[in-house]
């Protein structure tokens, strides 16, 4: 959500940010509504003051035995005026909030301008993609050849975009989650959280999936939403709270299932596990002071990168353009892992600094030490990592010509010492 007071003071900067996002200017429309809203609020307050004054006059007139009917009629008319102006002010504020809720965050100055991923900027590469003396297979072919990745039975159970993992692949999925959470909690200072998977409207609104992206979510018949990412419950842990400055930064991590309808992904990645309705992910969320969020963004991205480094996977880091980054993002780094079966890099983590955008919706604030009043916190989120896509990367990068898949050394303790996954008969 955007700060209305900031828009009043910086209308040109607001419109420039929206233009960079490929949107039309809105400051003039918002400020016109804002003036009308404040005028209605003023008229309501004046009517209330007048009603209170008439009330006192009625009391005084009664004590002197005077006829008060004219005063009573005037009070009634004033009460109606107050009610009408209050209703009008409420309507106008709701209209302003509706407009603001539909507008994305403004991009940081160093975010490249562009309509889509073609304008993204590659910042760095790590590692060399493996070379094979055979044609590398995509992960779905590897998994089915192993006899441990079953799309047909998943389809009969649930439809498309689901998978059944068995045996060593099911254990590998679990091993990856345990390895990632252990790394983030023991070395990087994140606090592990086991959050609810079902949340209310206000939680999904707070992290900006509502109202604009409701079609991308699953909703239960009694009004709960299945979380599309653990970012939703983790960020909302501070919703409505006033934090002590000394407690920040707060760093949370959670390993959860995630649920997405993929309504906007018709025809994309229909084969394999790249884009599923249900998948597992280790999420990272930070709550910081405004002056710390840029450094925290770099730190969070480095934490996600370290997972890939220890797994021995080649990747690159990309700064997303204004047309490619998410609705709530002020600045986003994507980490893209090399997938030999596709011959390209694919996103495996997205780390975003949302500055105050989510905090204003969630009413998450902090009280500066020695200062007066409160300020909105900054929120950041990132994948540390997407487990399904990491499993895909391991299958494709460590496949062997005989159908086996080697396991990275860091995962072997989580796999009871197993070094390779072999095809099942």
Your description of this structure?
40% of the residues lie in helices and 20% in strands. It has 12 helices and 18 strands. The strands form 5 sheets. An 8-stranded mixed beta sheet has the order 1-11-12-13-16-10-9-4. Helix 3 packs antiparallel against helix 4, helix 5 (139-146) crosses helix 12 (387-397) and helix 7 packs across helix 12. The protein starts with a helix and ends with a strand.
List key phrases describing it.
eight-stranded mixed beta sheet; BirA Bifunctional Protein, domain 2; 425 residues; Helix Hairpins; alpha+beta; 18 strands
Q: Using the alpha-carbon principal axes, give the shape.
A: elongated
Give the integer mean of the pLDDT values.
Answer: 96
- Helicity range: 25-40%
Beta strand %: 15-25%
Instruction: For the largest sheet, list the strands in their spatial order.
Output: 1-11-12-13-16-10-9-4
How do the SSEs run, as a string of H and E?
HHHHEHEHEHEEHEEHEEEHEEEHEEEHEE
Cα Rg: 27 Å
The CATH architecture of the largest domain would be: 2-Layer Sandwich
End-to-end Cα distance, whole Å, is: 55 Å
Pick out the low-confidence regions: none
Number of strands: 18
- In terms of structural class, how would the helical and strand content be classed? alpha+beta
| CATH class identity of the largest domain | Alpha Beta
Write out the CATH superfamily name of the largest domain: Bira Bifunctional Protein, Domain 2
Q: How many structural domains in the coordinates?
A: 2
Specify the number of helices: 12
Q: In this structure, how is the largest beta sheet organized?
A: 8 strands, mixed
CATH topology of the largest domain: BirA Bifunctional Protein, domain 2
């Amino acid at each position: 959500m955007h700060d209305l007071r900031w828009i009043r003071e910086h209308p040109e900067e607001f419109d420039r940010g929206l233009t960079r996002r490929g949107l039309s200017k809105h400051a003039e429309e918002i400020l016109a509504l804002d003036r009308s809203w404040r005028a209605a609020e003023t008229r309501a307050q004046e009517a209330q003051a007048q009603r209170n004054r008439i009330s006192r006059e009625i009391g005084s007139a009664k004590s002197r035995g005077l006829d008060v009917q004219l005063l009573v009629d005037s009070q009634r008319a004033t009460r109606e005026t107050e009610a009408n102006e209050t209703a009008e002010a409420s309507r106008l504020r709701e209209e302003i909030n509706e407009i603001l809720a539909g507008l994305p965050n403004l991009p940081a100055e160093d975010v490249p301008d562009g309509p889509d991923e073609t304008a993204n900027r590659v910042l760095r590469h790590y590692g060399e993609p493996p070379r094979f003396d055979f044609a590398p297979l995509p992960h779905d072919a590897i998994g089915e050849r192993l006899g441990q990745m079953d799309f047909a039975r998943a389809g009969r159970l649930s439809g498309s975009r689901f998978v059944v993992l068995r045996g060593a692949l099911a254990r590998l999925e679990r091993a990856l989650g345990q390895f990632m959470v252990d790394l983030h909690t023991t070395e990087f200072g994140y606090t592990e959280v086991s959050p609810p998977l079902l949340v209310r409207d206000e939680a999904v609104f707070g992290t900006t999936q509502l109202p604009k992206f409701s079609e991308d979510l699953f909703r239960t018949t009694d009004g709960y939403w299945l979380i599309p990412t653990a970012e939703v419950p983790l960020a909302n842990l501070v919703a409505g709270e006033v934090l002590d400055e000394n407690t920040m930064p707060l760093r949370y991590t959670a390993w959860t299932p995630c649920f997405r309808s993929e309504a906007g992904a018709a025809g994309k990645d229909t084969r394999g596990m790249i884009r599923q309705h249900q998948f597992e992910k280790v999420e990272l969320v930070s709550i910081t002071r405004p002056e710390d969020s840029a450094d925290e963004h770099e730190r969070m991205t480095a934490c996600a990168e370290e997972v890939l480094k220890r797994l021995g996977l080649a990747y690159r880091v990309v700064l997303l353009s204004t047309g490619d980054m998410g609705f709530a993002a002020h600045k986003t780094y994507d980490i893209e892992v090399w997938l030999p079966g596709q011959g390209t890099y694919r996103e495996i983590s997205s780390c975003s600094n949302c500055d105050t955008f989510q905090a204003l919706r969630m009413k998450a604030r902090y009280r500066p030490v020695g200062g007066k009043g409160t300020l909105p916190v900054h929120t950041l989120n990132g994948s540390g990592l997407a487990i399904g896509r990491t499993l895909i990367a391991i299958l494709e990068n460590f496949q062997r010509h005989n159908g086996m898949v080697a396991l990275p050394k860091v995962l072997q303790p989580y796999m009871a010492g197993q070094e390779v996954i072999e095809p099942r008969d």
